[in-house]
Amino acid sequence: MIRFDNVSKRYPGGKDALHAVNLHMPAGSMAFLTGHSGAGKSTLLKLIALLERTTRGQLFLDGENLSRAPKRRIPMVRRKIGMIFQNHRLLFDRTVFDNVALPLVIAGHRHQEIGRRVRAALDKVGLLGHERAFPITLSGGEQQRVGIARAVVNKPKLLLADEPTGNLDPDLSRDIMHLFEQFNQVGVTVLIASHDLDLISRMPYERLHLEHGQLLNSGEVAMA
Ligand SMILES: Nc1ncnc2c1ncn2[C@@H]1O[C@H](COP(=O)(O)OP(=O)(O)OP(=O)(O)O)[C@@H](O)[C@H]1O
């Protein structure tokens, strides 16, 4: 699903944020991405989502060479990916329904289809019945679940999460990780950047560890 061949990323005026990274995640696998602040975790996820472009090396998603992908391919590539952020980036002046529906509206789905898919996504994250609520009225854990529902509403093959439990207490963090496991169990490939070593160490998934832009282990992820 994801392959990095000697990928480096240098931001303008900086040093390499990622240096010669080799990585392979087969379809349906799940892994954690760890490393100190500034190690390059977010950069690695952004390269996959084409939010940033590689400087050197080749990056493949689902067999497609993203390093060569023209700009017009970006929307199609992003449709394969659900992204989840620490601060969930919800629109606070829109209802839960509208937040989750956004990727479907952008993709031009029909009204009825949107309603059906939004309710299915909210059901998966345990928030059915909250469609009309505004995010501000929800707890931090519930807001993160809305972010996850929005990420999965398009049925992506790949979920990328950047510190998804950063603001949550241990119980809620465990629940969120369990949700990711459930998506993985139905075939979605999942890559989660996280600082929460305590939680990660209790889960049976491989850890890809970055230090100063370099991957310290082999980068070959096996199926759990
Ligand atoms: N847009 C940018 N322009 C210039 N430098 C950047 C940019 N984004 C990140 N960097 C630099 O690239 C390096 C890697 O940053 P990145 O955000 O990927 O690390 P991280 O491991 O996700 O850190 P954190 O855990 O703090 O989020 C850092 O040195 C950072 O300062």
Please tell me about this protein's structure:
By secondary structure, this protein is of the alpha/beta class. The protein has 2 domains: 1-80 and 156-224, P-loop containing nucleotide triphosphate hydrolases (Rossmann fold, 3-Layer(aba) Sandwich), CATH 3.40.50.300; 92-155, no CATH class. The protein is 32% helix and 25% strand. The protein has 7 helices and 10 strands. The protein has helices at 41-48, 74-78, 96-106, 111-124, 140-152, 170-185, 197-201; strands at 2-10, 16-25, 30-35, 56-61, 64-65, 81-85, 158-162, 189-193, 206-211, 214-215. The strands form 2 sheets. The chain has a 6-stranded mixed beta sheet, with helices on both faces. Helix 3 packs across helix 4, helix 3 packs parallel to helix 5 and helix 4 packs across helix 5. The longest helix has 16 residues, at 170-185. The two termini are 15 Å apart. The chain binds adenosine-5'-triphosphate. Adenosine-5'-triphosphate (ATP) binds at residues 11, 14, 17, 35, 37-43. This is Cell division ATP-binding protein FtsE. It comes from Thiogranum longum. Homodimer. Forms a membrane-associated complex with FtsX.
